Structures are given as structure tokens and as C-alpha cells.
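FAQ

Q: What does a record look like?
A: Structure on top, sequence underneath. For example:
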């Protein structure tokens, strides 16, 4: 393809609303020549490049708006270190079929075992699959809903509550008072059988009444809606954070021993 042909094609692509293909056109034309592609093959190459770049931009924007830590992926989860987690079950959840069925996921276990990692990883998979996602810690969610309530704004209009997937992280580190517990109940009740919710908690389900202001009736009503269509993943294993601390200590010890030996040799 000659330079004038490239310019005419680039101009046409721009006029038709293509954003990335005009910039990549010369590179794509060179690739088409090397691979001896026919006209339809070259057209498919151009269209595929445009689609891929648009999808990359969509995912990047959606991740930024979701609040998800985008560096924490399921691929980075160490299933060998945490054998209590059924890998096949997590891989099934990563297909996002539970979101299509408007089901929930409850990740339970002590601190440091990877609950948040799995929740974020599933959230990233959901974004990649085209679903809207919002990620909030339990404290952030309650605080935002409290401000809405005080301002007289309907909490159900908050954008996060309309997301196809809402990830509520670290529920249970602080007990909720009666007002906060009712706010959380309204969230779960509003999303029940409409959308999907992932919750991570260090509290077992039997401890939720105490966490929810000691209100057993409210806790029962909340859990009834949350667990009706729910995948419960209980993690009972070692802490990733403690492992990292141990590795750091061992590395520091090795460095210290090496430095000490080097110092002794220099004195000789």
C-alpha cells in the first residue's frame, strides 16, 4: 500500500469513527504484506485491532471507576500455599455465571488467608467480562450510606448499589451499631435477586448476629437474603502476610550473615 493510499484509508477510517486503526494502519499494512493476507484478511486485521484497543480502554476505565486494586488477580493467587481453597470452584466462579444468575459469593476466614485477593480477582474477571463492578470496604460503604441518609438522599440511588457486582470487603472487623446494621440490611435487601454481591468477612455466619448490633432478627433476615443464592467459600489456612514477614526476616538474616562474614574477611 503506497503512502497516498495509506493516507486516504486513514482519513476514511477516521471519518467513520475509528480511533485506533488509523494510528496502527501502517503497521497493520506491513503485517498484511508479510503474512500475504488478501483484502478480506487485511480488513479483518484492521477491525480486530480496533476492537482489541477499544476493549483494552474499556477495561482500563471500568477498573479505575470500580475502585478495584487492578494488580491483584486470580492468576496471582497461590493455591498451593492455601490448599483449603478449591481451585476448580474459584475457576468456575471466574466464568461469572453466578453474576448472570444474580447469585452471591461469601468468602469467610481469618485475616490474611486471601479472602480479599480472591474477591478482587473475581471482580477483575467480572470487569473483563463486561459487568459493572463496585469495590468498597464495609467501613467505606456504611460511611457513604450514612452520609446519604443524613442528607435525605435515597441510599438505593447510590451508583455502587446498582452495579452488576458489588464487592464488600472486610465486613466484621468492627461491630455495627443498630443504625449501621439496618443500612447494611437495606443494601442486601435492595440487591436481593437483582444483582450479585461478594462479601469477605473474618466472622463466621453464626457470629453475624453479634456483629449486627446483637439483633438476631435483623441478622436472620439479612442472611436469609444473602445465602438464598450464594456460594460460600470458607478458608482455613495460614496467613499470606505472616509468610511474607517470615520470608523478609529470613532474607534479612541471610544478608546480615553475609555482611558479617565479609567484614571478618576484610579485617583479615
Amino acid at each position: 500500500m503506497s503512502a497516498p493510499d495509506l493516507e486516504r484509508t486513514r482519513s476514511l477510517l477516521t471519518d467513520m469513527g475509528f480511533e485506533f486503526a488509523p494510528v496502527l494502519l501502517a503497521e497493520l499494512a506491513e503485517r498484511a504484506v508479510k503474512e500475504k493476507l488478501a483484502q478480506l484478511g487485511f480488513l479483518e486485521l484492521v477491525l480486530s485491532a480496533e476492537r482489541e484497543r477499544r476493549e483494552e480502554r474499556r477495561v482500563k476505565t471500568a477498573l479505575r471507576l470500580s475502585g478495584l486494586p487492578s494488580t491483584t488477580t486470580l492468576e496471582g493467587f497461590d493455591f498451593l500455599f492455601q490448599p483449603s481453597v478449591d481451585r476448580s470452584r474459584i475457576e468456575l466462579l471466574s466464568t461469572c455465571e453466578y453474576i448472570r444468575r444474580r447469585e452471591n459469593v461469601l468468602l469467610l476466614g481469618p485475616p490474611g488467608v486471601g479472602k480479599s485477593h480472591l474477591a478482587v480477582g473475581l471482580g477483575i474477571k467480572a470487569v473483563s467480562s463486561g459487568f459493572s463492578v463496585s469495590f468498597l470496604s464495609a467501613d467505606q460503604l456504611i460511611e457513604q450510606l450514612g452520609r446519604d441518609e443524613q442528607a435525605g438522599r435515597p441510599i438505593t440511588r447510590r451508583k455502587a448499589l446498582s452495579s452488576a457486582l458489588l464487592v464488600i470487603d472486610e465486613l466484621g472487623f468492627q461491630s455495627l451499631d443498630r443504625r449501621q446494621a439496618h443500612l447494611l440490611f437495606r443494601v442486601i435487601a435492595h440487591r436481593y435477586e437483582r444483582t450479585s454481591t461478594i462479601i469477605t468477612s473474618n466472622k463466621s455466619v453464626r457470629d453475624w448476629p453479634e456483629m449486627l448490633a446483637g439483633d438476631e432478627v435483623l441478622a436472620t433476615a439479612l442472611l436469609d437474603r444473602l445465602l438464598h443464592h450464594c456460594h460460600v467459600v470458607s478458608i482455613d489456612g495460614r496467613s499470606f502476610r505472616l509468610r511474607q514477614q517470615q520470608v523478609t526476616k529470613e532474607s534479612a538474616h541471610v544478608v546480615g550473615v553475609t555482611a558479617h562474614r565479609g567484614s571478618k574477611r576484610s579485617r583479615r
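Q: Is there anything notable about this one?
A: The beta strands are 104-108, 133-137, 165-171, 196-201, 230-234.
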